[in-house]
Amino acid sequence: MDLSKLLRLRKVTRAVQEYFRSQLDDHLRSLQPLFRPSNVLGEHIRNAPKQTVKIADASLKELLSLYARIGRVQPFRFEDEVKPPIDVFGAAAEITPVTYDYGPGGGGDAPNIRVTSPLKWVLTFKGLGPSRLHELLVSQSGTARMELQTCLLHYLVLHIILSQGLGVAPILRALRFTLETDFVEALGGLPMTCVSAPVKTILPEDEAIIQSTELSGASAFEEIIDIESILRLDDPVKGTLVDLVAGFGDDLLVANADQDDS
Questions:
Q1: Mean of the pLDDT values across residues 245-262?
Q2: pTM to 2 decimal places
Q3: Is residue 32 part of a domain?
Q4: Which ranges of 130-247 would DSSP assign to H, the alpha helix?
Q5: Whole-angstrom distance between the N-terminal and C-terminal Cα of the chain?
Q6: 35, part of any domain
Q7: Domain count along the chain
């Protein structure tokens, strides 16, 4: 893949990303009432409105179990117990693109680069995304230590909310977004829920990645749209995405259609 084609695919990727991110942001705003912690924990939440929540006791038991298993090990190492009422105030959700380290050329002495998956996002409560969690883990002193505990509780409560058979998860799936939970071993098995668009992004050949990062001078790269995943899509949105890609050159569609036929 030459750099000129890579540049066009990157522009397509960002256009597709904006299309789906705008939709997902709108959906999350509409679903905001379903993210309230009191929906699963009821009066176990401090200052929660008085209401009967059938699953409140079971949700509390699950929360305390998760906290005992994850919060007491590295990198959190909390020794104190959590008791109701729980101080969890999150209500609105936000999304952050997934990132990971990758070593082009098989690793070796070459430094890793930070890769972004533009059509896959980590779903968290607002203001408590992965970068904020990392900042608190690095600090771990004074007020930051208390904030870290609160941040951890929010991740666990959100996991419980999204694990319910009814509510946010099935609605997002019906709106063509896929949900999956990653249990991050480096964070004691902390569950992080990721939301993905119905089309995929991929990494090009390592040579193209290396050339791109050398030209930009940055150790970062974004995955590019997998146009074949658009062409295979069995969904009314396919027409919109095909038109979007065609706006950057019909040859992008023709080349991938030929590969499918072969």
A1: 73
A2: 0.90
A3: yes
A4: 130-139, 143-163, 168-174, 206-216, 227-231, 237-246
A5: 19
A6: yes
A7: 1
Cα gap 91→15, rounded to integer Å? 29
Residues for the chain: how many in total?
262
In the structure encoding, which two tokens stand for residue 248, read together?
Answer: 């950057």
139's tokens: 């600090």
- Does the residue 24 lie in any domain? yes
3-state secondary structure of 196: strand
| 208 assigned to some structural domain | yes
User: Is pLDDT above 90 for 70?
Assistant: yes
H or E element: which one contains 116? Answer: strand 113-125
246 and 220 Cβ atoms separated by less than 8 Å: no
> Nearest 5°: CA angle at 67, between 151 and 94?
30
Query: What would the two tokens of residue 256 be?
Result: 């991938």
- Position 204: which residue type? P
Range of the domain at 154: 3-225
The encoded tokens of residue 241 equal 């995405």
Give the whole-angstrom CA distance, residue 255 versus residue 9: 13
